[in-house]
Amino acid sequence: MNMYNKTALWLSLPALLLLAVPFVTLISVTHWGHLRLTWGDKDAIVTS
């Protein structure tokens, strides 16, 4: 790995962290116990 690749990697880390923040936040605030599968639910199919 040359110097350019190492520099590019370190410069991309802040951007990758900023991109990950919304997904991590969404996963942490979602109440997973209230979710249920809607496979075969016609209302869910129409909505999607």
UniProtKB/TrEMBL annotation:
<protein>
    <submittedName>
        <fullName>Sulfate ABC transporter permease</fullName>
    </submittedName>
</protein>
